[in-house]
Amino acid sequence: MSNIHPTAIIDPQAEIGQNVTIGPFAEIRNNVVIGDGCQIGNGAIIFSGTRLGRECKVFHYAIVGEICQDLKFAGEETTAEIGDRTVIREFATIHRGTKEHWKTEIGSDCLIMAYVHVAHDCIIGDRVIISNATNLGGHVKVEDWAIIGGMCGVHQFSRIGCHALVGAYSRVTKDVPPYVLAGRDPLIYEGLNMVGMKRRGFTPETINELKEAYRLIYQSEYNFKDALLKIEETQTPGPEVQHVVQFIRASERGIIR
Predict the structure, then answer these.
(1) Is 11 a catalytic residue?
(2) What pLDDT digit, counting tens, does each position of 37-60 carry?
(3) Which of 77, 133, 141, 239 has the fewest CB atoms within 10 Å, i.e. the most exposed one?
């Protein structure tokens, strides 16, 4: 049985799952789907086009699915799609997509902390943590298990690789490769995210392979292109190193120094 406060405003065309809690003065617009077991806090607004998975928590006064701030947006029908068990804290804002991608995506088991902004057409993987007051520009991609520290600014079209950790107060204007620590100003590579990988069960062999790959990329005489070729020549890359190589080769903005 759902628990919906009498002051909540719910459009009759919204689809509300089972065992959903909706707090005082929250507003649920039309063309919204809220999965079973979700909790919507006081004063939160869930706009048209939002799709919430199961057991999500949207805290007080968060905004999910509002139209974007892209001047090219022409009113097209787009979505903001959130996976299961993701937590969206107070005053966070998540905008829906544009015709460039048609949706903004946030995966499952993510934590979007207070005052975070996720702009149009972002793609965020599973188990991502975005800390307080961080702003993501449009079309940003964040892979699984990445952590972004508080009060960061992430430039539009930038990418942050899986298991990477970006330090607080950073300006992310280039791609951050997978598995690394990134910090300082301007943002640079500071080593591997050893603590995160060990916590998640990476084997010593895999960590050593990544160490050697990043040594060639960042601490050798090779430029990035030649370093990737050297990795493929001197190693039989495991899936993690292969992903690093593919990520860097696909970079359009370039990777951090």
Answers:
(1) no
(2) 999 999 999 999 999 999 999 999
(3) 239
Distance CA 19, CA 38 (A): 7
217 is a domain residue = yes
State the catalytic residue, choosing from 121, 139, 163, 183. 121
Sign of CA dihedral 138, 141, 145, 151: negative
**Active-site residue (options: 65, 138, 161, 183):** 138
Q: What is the mean pLDDT of the chain?
A: 97
Based on its alpha-carbon atoms, the radius of gyration of the chain, rounded to whole angstroms, reads: 20
**Residue 172 within a domain:** no
121 has catalytic annotation: yes
| pLDDT for residue 190 | 97
> How many structural domains compose the chain?
2
Tokens 């804290």 identify what position? 89
Strand, helix or coil for residue 82: strand
pLDDT at 167: 98
